[in-house]
Amino acid sequence: GRQARISLPYHSDGRWYATVVGPASEDRKGHIKHAVLSFAVRDIQQIWRALLLPENFRISLITRDNLVWIESPFSAERIGSAVNGPIGRGSPAAAGVGGDQGVNREVTGIARWHALRDLDLTLAVTVKEAAITAIWWERFFTPFVTAVTAIFGFAAAIVLVGISIAHEAAYREESLTALSESEARFRDMADAASDWFWEMGPDLRFTYVADRAREVSGIDVNTFLGRGLTELEGVVDRDGIAGNGYNDMLAHRPFRDITIAHHGNEGVDRWLRINGKPVFDKDRCFMGYRGTGTDITAARRAEERSATAQSRFTRAIENSSEGLALYDRDDRLVVCNHKFREYLFPGLEGAIRRGSSYRDLVVLFARSGRSPEAAKNPKAWAAAWMRSRASQAESVFRLADGRWLRHQDYRSPEGDLISIYSDITQFKEREAELLRLGEENKRLAAALTATEAGVIISDPRQRDNPVVFVNRAFTKITGYSAREVLGRNSRFLRGPKTDRGDLERMRHAMRQRTPIRVDLYSYRKDGSTFWNRLMVNPVFGEHGEVEYFVGIQEDVTQQKQAEQELRDTKEMAELANRTKSEFLAVMSHELRTPLNAIIGFSDILRSEVFGMIGSDRYRGYAEDIHDSGVHLLELINDILDLSKAEAGKIELNEDIVDIPTIAERCFAMIRQRAEEANVRVKMDVPAVLPTVRADERRLKQILINLLTNAVKFTPAERTVLLTAEELDSGLRVSVIDQGIGIAEEDIPRVLQPFGQVNSVLTRHSEGTGLGLPLTKHLADLHGAAFEITSEVGKGTTVSIVIPPERVLARHAA
Question: Partner of 539 at 20 to 30 A CA spacing, among 414, 424, 595, 768?
């Protein structure tokens, strides 16, 4: 509640004690905080006895509800009794309990009281009128009579010492005034100081805290009263109360700088520091502590800010990509980062200590072998370094591992020395690269000047992609000087006859940032024309953007004229070839009609369809006529097929074809001719192979031509073999013979129409040399590869490889 309460006395260790609980403060939420005070009852009497009160005085503690807690002389029966009645108009009730202080001298007696605001109690002292009279007689009247008597006896003495007394009184008055002024000065200084005073009892609980604590730190003093350090409400043990100072307190020794942190209702921390001195009575019994307290919040926060700044500074140094070292004004190392140790003293980190001198570190580096230059003469190198440092000149040196370092010393306004070591290896490499590029540019410039090809460079980053460089060959080819070209777009070389499609192709390639080669019909300054073969290449920068377009141009007018002549010649040859093919086709068609009649009539004659001829010789002539006609018809058919093939008039009638079946039929058709030539023929074709998409008649024609040639050019008693196999690259069909063979240099000749290789067997064999060229044409129409391998005297292998896209699926036998 909001009223004070006091407990009944309780006896402990031979003394009577009591505890008072009263409202102390109220927080923002309306919660009331209470103060608790325990005291010895006799202490109240001792306080008033010190004021020389008479023996029959009465002490009372009066609550708000007018209850008397105790009266003195001490009597246990009076504890907690009600007020018997008013002492008089000067009583606490009449004067208004709760006033600060009052005195009333009425008939009944004299009362003096004092309001205990924090405890909501009133402390009253009363003296009855009779006791006052006795006191007056005892303390004033009797001494007065004695004094009057003594005056007459000591009048002379009084006169003699009057002056002395007057001087003494004046001295005392001056002393009292000085004491009062001293107390005022002390009070003013205490109010102006940031420190405040406090007291503790023997139980190490606060019994007094000056209001100055609230003014300085804003902390309610009731937070301390009746509590020890470790019991304080809202106190956080941040720095460890139970430290050395606290141990001194427990041992009743003077202590200093016990730091405590207080956490207020608004979450604001306050740091307090207290110093104390033990108090002992005349018997050396410990009575408690007196001391001062200081609010060190500002200092602590300044320390935290300083520590934070120091931490940030340290992190900044450690995270720097440069080696940093800080020396004081005496050139002693204060701090350095890991880059400093890594650059200059790898493996010697233990030798780098705070307080090391600048010169010692320079000598240590010179002797460490980290610098090849310093290792030659460490003493001279260190001396040169110190001279350079005195002039604050920048130095660059190379380490043994190939890295380059730049060093610079700076003096701060405070006199500190800052040494910075930067890794400039990439810069030095870039510098060397630039020097190399400079030399290379000189060589390129000389080459561009000496070359006969025109060079033109434009800058697409500028408006209208202007020309920024041309070489001498360009001016020689076009007739324009460099001054007339620079800053203009290269379109001045174009004219009415320049092909717009070629120009668009070039512009599209430049937009796509891809190289292009184009032949442009261009114009010189004098109006003459030439063919300009232009190679345009983009030049990219570091970030992928096009910085330049470089064009290499060449006058190819004569080459173009030669190409045109070649095209004209080719067209004339192709026209002649087509004319030949058409002529052969027409002639072959015209020859077939009489040949068919010759073959038919000769077949009738040799077969004696209408009766006996009569002479065997006529029958033999008829046989010869028939064979010659059939041979001539086959020749005409080959010529006609070859002419159609060259003219591109053969069309394939494609179907699903089974290779083993085709091979079997072709093998059967050639067997009789082989027997007549006494040549062995064999077939090694699997019964199951994938089917293919092809023209069956043309595929038969290919195999028959190959088998016929093989039998024709294979001597008697030797073998011709037909094989087929499936490959990853398709399906291969081969005809292998043991014939006369073909020299490697003659293979291209036998593939030409009417091309034959002179040999004894060739001259005695029928044929016009059309079989292999026609077979190759038919294979090409199917997209099949045509392969010939041969060795003179050992035989020839001719293969066709049907591509995978024509191979379909396996066909069951």
Answer: 424
